[in-house]
Structure formats: C-alpha cells, structure tokens
Specification:
The complex is a heterodimer. By secondary structure, chain A is of the alpha/beta class. Helix content of chain A is 41%, strand content 20%. Chains A and B meet through strand 1, helix 7, strand 8 and helix 9 of A and helix 1 and strand 2 of B.
Chain lengths: 352, 182
C-alpha cells in the first residue's frame, strides 16, 4: 500500500479512485472541464485489462454503461453539464432497470452550452432525478481531491448495494486543480457484493431479465412502490454531512463541494474574531441530510442559515424545505463563472 | 503563512511546469498546496497561466484574486494580470518579452526584471527561461527552499529524459545567481 502524498488533479483522482474500487468499464465522450478524467482512463484501463471506450456521443456512452452494468461489471461514465443533460435518458433507464452505475458530473456554467467555468448549477438535475419518471440517484459531493478519490469507492459500493445509479458531483475547479493526496487501497470489490440478477449466461439457472418496461396493468405501480421503499431506506441510512461548531453557532453556513472550502475559510477567519459561525456541509446531496437541519431548527429558533452556492439558489430550496420556516434562511450565490469570494460572503454575513 | 502566486506567459513558455515544480516543492516540505491551471479554450500564442498557493493552513479557494507574487513571462500576460497583484507584492518580469522599462504600473510593487529568455538562449535552450525565473523567485522569497525544488525537479523528470534535468538545474542556479544567491 502506498501512503506517499502525491499531487493529482481532481479529474485524475476520480479516475484512479474508480480503478481502485474495481471499475473495469469506462465509456465517455470528451468535454471540458473533465477531459483529464477520460484521458487518464484511456491510459489506465489498458494497464488493468479493463475496457475503455471513447463513445461517439454521451448518449452512446451511458447506454454502453447500461450494458456493462447489466452483465455485472462495475461501470462508469463521466461528463460535464451539457453532456449530463444528454445522458439523462440513459440514467432514467438505469434507474428503471435497477442497475448500479457511477456517473461523474464535473459541472460547468449553463444553461445551454454555457461556458467552461466552474459552477454548481446542476444541483436540481442531479438531486431530482434529471430524466423522466419517479426516480432518484444517490448524489455525492466531494470538496477536495482526496475526497474525490475516496468517494469513488463509496459510490460503487452504494450503487451495488442498492442497485441504483450514483452521481459524483464536482465542479470545474475541483476537476482541474491539483492538491496533495494519498492513494490508498479502496479494494472493496473483494468484499464481494453478489449480483445474482446479472446477465451472465443462464445455463443451469432460470434466465434473468433486465428491463424497465411494465405493460401489464398494475405492474408498473407495484414496481414504483418497490423503488419508493428503496429510496426511503436510503434516506434513512445514507444521508451524510460534515458539521463544524454547531454547538454554539448563531449563524450556520451551508455549502457543498468547492464552495464549502471557501465557506470554511470564512468560518475560521470569523471565529478568530470571536464570531459564532458554524457550518453544515452536505456530503450526500441526495439523500439530503435533513436530520441536522430539522434538529437545529427545532432547538434553536434564532439561528440563521446562510446557504452559499455557485448557482442562484438550488440547494437553498432543500434547506428551506427541511427547516420549514422555523429559522431564517438567507442566500449568497453567483453562477455562470462567478464564484462567491470570501470577501463577499463576509460582507453578506455582516448584514444578517 | 500563505503565499499566493500567479504564473503567466505564452503557451510554450513553461508556466504550467514552473507552477507544478513550485507546488511539488511545497508538497515535499509538508505544506498545503494547490495548483490551478487555465484550461480549455486556450490558443497557440495566447496566454496561459496557473495559480499556485503554498500555505501552512488548509487552503479554501485555489483561485487567486489578489496575488502575493506574479511571475510574468510576456507582455499580454502582464496586461492581463498586473491588477491582480497586492500592494507591495513581488513582480517578476521577463524583459525579453516585456517592453515596459519604467511603467507607472510598477508603483508600490517590488519589481524584479531580467531577460530570462535571452539568458536561457545564451545557455543554449530558450525553453529553460521558466526555471531561471523560478530561481529568481527563490532568491527573493523564502517560501520553499532550493533543496526541495531540486528534489521536485528530480521526481518529476521522466527516466528517459534525464538529460533535461541537468539543463533545468543549471537554469535554476543561473536564476539564483542573478540575485547573488547560489
């Protein structure tokens, strides 16, 4: 096992994390700012005797992932915002067929072709399903290069355990930046999550069927209820967040991913000036860590939550839903390439 | 201590590599570092830049809006980034490609100017201008030490390109000597 700290970009760390987690099938189509991920996979899959395919489109890539997942492989694809929109049909089909897969979105500015600057404007798309139908994806939001690496193991495990697509949501800054990280073994495949449902050839067993098509009356409703039961279980068991100084905070900053790093710097600066600031960083965006917000809003009526995003208020809606009007919820955000600076956040806090 | 450095120049002048060597040296010394490149819609002959932060504390944003140091390798980059420099910040200029002998813009800045590219050509390889500039930076500021930089260069050199290591080291020493250090 290697414990030496090395410099890696977020994109490369995600790719290496996937390899270490036992991913042996990658299909993708180039788009900035996640190209280094695809390029890394092109080199690395060859070394581990996995399969790398540069597909002819995003749609093609996600459907190749569908195929690989159906036969039981740990499979993934990656893209950035406009490309993610194209993949939505495939993600809906993965959800409908209950197939495990990991999809990485290194977000850039939108809507439309937008630009290539970092952004967090795909929160709605990721956490609400994105494609058609009543489905959810688990959404993980790393905020540093080490987490980008670590979360890939978690993502593949969750995908296999719940037979669900998992989205790893980063932004252009996380994808492009290098910082020190440690490559440690994520050897999770060894634990072995059995896949008796996989299409592995049905000699001496009943054929398996993988589909998302239920025409017989009542069947689709029954299947949807099964999905909903699974989603409730995930909400109970898998919600995850990082909390800082929640015991005495009068203002809590709420931010995820890269934005949480900037929020943390603000927090430490203001703590030095004895200001009672805390922070909640959702790590799973779906399931959203409702519990901590419900708890805080019941216990501390005079608390103010300041949601900070590289969007115009998407996670803001989840925070408002969870706090249910019991505490004041304020917002600070920019998008389209704008990144809220420490100075802007401190100024905003002063007005609360 | 947190040092925020922007390194900018034309594509091909080695500004990305300069930043990587600096970041790797910081890492060797056990510091927190980030390296953020300009990415995507870059064009040949246009400007390229990277932002490097070296710190004793965890780093928030890897993006720099006010830099402690600018290392600038050509004039378009100078125009793009001079306003990013803090008052009393360090400005390292490659005068081989910057013709602003006495600019108003230098006011309240510590300015260090040398024709890095000309010096590199005298050494026989225009491409090591970046390492001469890095040597110049090391002579001015005590953020990372020379030994870590040499170690970083050694770690980053591919085994089949060892001959490049020596010329890069020599360039670094040349840069240090410009300021009376070695």
């Amino acid at each position: 096992m290697m414990t030496k700290r090395i410099l890696m970009t977020g994109n490369e760390a995600i790719a290496e994390g996937a390899i270490q987690a036992g991913c042996r099938f990658y299909a993708g189509y180039p788009i900035t700012p996640q190209n280094e991920l695809t390029a890394y996979m092109a080199r690395r899959m060859l070394q581990v005797k996995g399969i790398f395919i540069q597909a002819e489109s995003e749609l093609s890539a996600i459907n190749m992932v569908f195929g690989a997942a159906a036969v039981g492989e740990r499979a993934m694809t990656s893209s950035s915002s406009p490309g993610m929109s194209l993949k939505q049909e495939g993600i809906s089909y993965l959800a409908g067929a209950e197939l495990p897969a990991v999809i990485v979105n290194i977000m850039r500015g939108g809507p439309g072709l937008g630009n290539i600057a970092p952004s967090q404007s795909d929160y709605f798309q990721a956490t609400r399903g994105g494609g058609h139908g009543d489905y959810r994806c688990i959404v993980l939001a790393p905020s540093c290069v080490q987490e980008a690496y670590n979360f890939m193991g978690v993502a593949f495990d969750l995908a296999d355990r719940y037979r669900i697509p998992v989205i790893v949501l980063g932004d252009g800054m996380l994808g492009q930046m290098m910082e020190p990280m440690v490559i440690h073994s994520l050897n999770r495949k060894a634990k072995g999550i059995e896949k008796p449902w996989a299409l592995t050839g049905c000699q001496a067993r009943k054929p398996n069927v993988i589909k998302s098509f239920y025409l017989k009356e009542g069947d689709l409703e029954k299947f949807n209820l099964k999905l909903q039961k699974k989603y409730r279980l995930i909400q109970q068991k898998e919600a995850c967040y990082e909390g800082l100084f929640l015991d005495d905070a009068k203002t809590i900053l709420v931010a995820y991913g890269t934005m949480a790093r900037i929020a943390k710097n603000v927090l430490y600066k203001l703590r030095e000036k004895k200001k009672k600031i805390g922070l909640v960083r959702p790590i799973t965006l779906w399931p959203f860590p409702k519990g901590i917000f419900q708890q805080l809003s019941v216990q501390r009526k005079r608390l103010v939550a300041l949601v900070i995003e590289m969007s115009y208020g998407q996670m803001l809606e989840d925070v408002k839903l969870c706090t249910d009007g019991k505490i004041k919820v304020e917002f600070c955000g920019r998008a389209g390439g704008g990144i809220p600076t420490e100075r802007e956040i401190i100024k905003k806090i002063a007005t609360l | 201590m947190t040092e925020e450095i922007i390194i900018a120049g034309a594509g091909g002048q080695g500004v990305m590599l300069l930043g990587k060597v600096l970041a790797q040296a910081g890492l060797i010394q056990g510091k927190y570092v980030t390296w953020l490149p300009s990415y995507g819609a870059e064009v040949r002959g246009g400007t390229a830049y990277c932002m490097v932060i070296v710190s004793d504390k965890q780093i928030g944003s890897p993006y720099i809006d006010k830099a402690d140091t600018l290392i600038i390798m050509n004039e378009p980059s100078f125009r793009k980034f001079y306003s990013y420099l803090k008052d009393n910040g360090l400005l390292i200029l490659n005068t081989s490609f910057i013709n602003l002998a006495e600019s108003q813009l230098y006011k309240r800045r510590r300015v260090v100017k040398h024709p890095f590219t000309d010096i590199a050509m005298q050494m026989g390889n225009a491409r090591v201008a970046n390492m001469i500039a890095l040597g110049g930076y090391l002579a001015q500021k005590d953020i990372v030490d020379q030994r870590s930089v040499i170690k970083a260069m050694e770690e980053m050199t591919l085994t089949d390109k060892r001959e490049l290591l020596e010329v890069n080291k020599q360039a670094l020493y040349t840069g240090l000597k410009l300021y009376g250090k070695s």
